[in-house]
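[agent] plan:
  1. take the single chain provided in the ticket
  2. run structure prediction with default settings
  3. attach structure tokens to the ticket
  4. add a short note for the reviewer (M.T.)
[agent] executing step 1
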Amino acid sequence: MKMLFLLLVCYAGALAQSKPETAVAEIKTFQEELNREYKDKKKSPLLPEDLKKFKKHQFFPIDLKYRVTAQLTLTPETSFMPMKATQAYMQDYRVYGIAEFSINGELYTLPLYQSKNLLNNPKYVGYLFLPFTDLTNGNETYGGGRYLNLQAPTDGNELVIDFNKAYSPYCAYNPRYSCPIVPEQNHLPIAIPAGVKYVAKKK
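[agent] step 2 finished; step 3 output follows
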């Protein structure tokens, strides 16, 4: 019995140690895929002259402090409404739920959104959209904020929000794109030095 207990403890310890490694590997994969997309002239939002010079994105150092487990409170009564965008074309979203999480011991809440356009697309089952602004915007990151793609939990009310996977909207790189404007309630009053950085082009 003691031996079984020791084995279970060792196994649990191994799992605990592997979790950060798995998270870091996921983030690195995200970074590689984002760079690959932007290098692909068929998928890249970059202007032709920028695509020629693009090598890779700049990212903040990976910091698992900004990979948080959030409690999700669903809001099934909400309706789909157009989300303001940088151009005339707007898409319909509804508030899917409110995520509550802590960073540095402080609690924060952010609405998570569901896209009406993707609702019946099997490829995007459970897809949630999290636009946000924080105190890095306009300095180290894009002034209009950043986005995160999330997956709705299939069981329970917890989900992982990993700000290390935050990326800039396409319109940060190419003005022909119409991008959702981050709603006011999605502002974080702290700096989130995680995810992709952004350097504006010199005029």
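[agent] step 4 note for reviewer: Confidence is low (pLDDT under 50) at residues 1-18.
[agent] ticket updated
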